[in-house]
Each structure stands twice: as C-alpha cells, then as structure tokens.
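Handout, page 2. Input:
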Amino acid sequence: MTEEAKRARLAGLYVVLDPDVTGDRDIIQVAREAMAGGATVLQLRDKRHDKGRQLELARALQRVAAEGHALFFVNDHVDVALLLAGPDGIGVHLGQKDIPVAEARRILPRNVLVGASTNNVAEALRAKADGADYVSVGCLYPTRTKGDTRPATLDMLRAVKQAAGLPVCAIGGVNEGNIAEVASAGADMASVIRAVCAAPDVGAAARLLASRFRQGREGAS
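Output:
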C-alpha cells in the first residue's frame, strides 16, 4: 500500500485501547467490538505493563486490526513499532516528550506511519516537516486520562488543519456529546478512550460515536 493510500485511511473513529481503562475485560475482544461498531483506527496505549508484555499485546492487536481492515498504532514506543514493521502495517504515535518525529523517521521504514501530538500551529508544522503522517490537536475537552495536558480549542484545530495540510485527529475528552462538533470543525479523526473502552457495550458506543462523527463531517461539507 502506498503512503498516499495509507494516509487516505487516516479518517473516522480512532479508539485508544488502554488496559487501565479496559480493566478486567479482554483488550483483544474490546478491539474487535470497537471495530465492529465502526472504529477505523486503533492504538495501544499501555502504561501498565512492561515492554515485553506490551510487545505481545501490540502483536496480537496488530493482527486483529489487519483482520478488521483498521489501522493500528502503538503509543510512544518506536522500538515496538520497528519490531512489528511488516505487511500487516503498524504506526507509532509520539507526544511532545517522546522521541522526536525526525529521530523516529531516521530508524523507521517509510511504510510505518507516524502521528504526533500537537497543541498549536507551530508544533504541527514542525511535525509535518519532520515527517509526521498526521497530527493530533488537543486537549479539546476535560479528560481524566492524562493529567499533564495543555488546553486547545476548536479554532486551533481549524487553524492547524488549514496550515499543516495533514490529516488531523481531535483528542482530549471527546465523547458522544461533542464528537459531531469536532468533526464539523474539520477533524479527520476523533480519538476516544473512555467513551468506548469504559462503555458497558463497546460495540454500541463505537457505533454511536462513529455515526455522530460522520454526521458532523457531512454537515461540514
């Protein structure tokens, strides 16, 4: 698959799978149910397990994502992405305090997608220049998942989208009540954690979120 074709798939509901949120539920099953509900991108965000277990989980989720025709990313860990680079596809999402995008690009194959967390236009343009395939913009709404976030606005999301010319993912507190407005503001993807992973019915939650995101995008076009 070409780079352009992969970037074209950076759209829709982006579900971040976090063992601290999924709890005792099987994270693989959560991933399957999220995709059945309409998730098009999955990410493993694991602050709980050691690197060996993270690699094991990432490998399993990579296979599941490929079966469901979804893109799969690991959070933070360039080494895990490098180990999993291959025909099933892999990506890595990097924060401002992680290995810089430019350094990741030095060691990763070109077919490994790289996403970058940003908070403003300058950070987004830097990420693009360094080789990012998409940027996220946030934190847009209050969230319990991360305590060190910086606030962002829908106006900033619009500005980043216009300036960077890359797929943009809305992050931070996105839920069923606000996902349509981030889509209307121009987000190509909307990242959720608790809104899906903590839902009593994962598939139903993903289905509702994906539907409202599509409605927001249609209203913006």
